[in-house]
Amino acid sequence: MIRIAPSILSADFAALGQDVARVEAGGADQLHVDVMDGRFVPNLTVGPVVVAALRKRTRLPLDVHLMIVEPERYIPEFVAAGSDMVTVHAEACPHLARTLAQIRELGARAGVALNPSTPPSALEYVLDDLDLVLVMSVNPGFGGQSFIPGAHRKIREVRALLGARPVEVSVDGGVKADLARSLVEDGATTLVAGSAIFGAADPAEAVRALRRAAAA
Ligand code: DX5
Ligand code: ZN
Questions:
Q1: How far is the CA of 56 from the centre of ligand 2 (A)?
Q2: In this predicted model, what pLDDT tens digit does every residue of 190-199 receive, in sequence order?
Q3: What is the atom index within ligand 1 of the atom nearest the CA of 174?
Q4: Is 19 a catalytic residue?
Q5: Pairing between strand 132-136 and 31-36?
Q6: Domains of the chain: residue spans and CATH
Q7: Reported confidence tier of residue 120, pLDDT bands at 50, 70, 90
Q8: Burial of residue 43 (number of CB atoms within 10 Å: 0-12, 13-18, 19+)
């Protein structure tokens, strides 16, 4: 079954608890939290305090996407705050295997994100060290951008590289209902969506609509 992960980047940060309750009611499988540092990406968002606040308000797994340089400096704080999954960018990690081991040793699931221009081969020597691959279908930094079609091929190549390993393949950026079915056919197991869910008049219904479209 496909997993739907609403990205809170497009939620109302002044009413975050309420927005989270809405997508939870809609049957969301996990919450995607975009952490940006103004260095790895040209935008700033939230840190561990927001993860800790979310942890108190929801039982949904927290899928924390670190778009930051030197993520190893902050991973312990993000796990302590209640992150279930921590995803780092391959481009930000000169010692990727060590960083993934750090995440797992702290008790969280370890993910690797690939920018649109990063080839799947970046994963080749860490295939047994990861629990999740996040295929970026936009250049990270902002919500509401358009899906980059090259992500289709990337997902298929990542899936082939993973073989039978039980690794989650997530796609992030510009995901809308009309793309859902094809992304699942490519091999995606998780759809991250920000503006398509929180930009909708009824975010709970938008979660259901994405799930229906993925199954159609
Ligand atoms: C982009 C973030 C995404 C973003 C997706 O840098 O990693 O998670 O919130 O937003 P939409 O679905 O609006 O493209
Ligand atoms: Zn993200």
A1: 21
A2: 999 999 999 9
A3: 14
A4: no
A5: unpaired
A6: 3-215 (3.20.20.70)
A7: very high
A8: middle
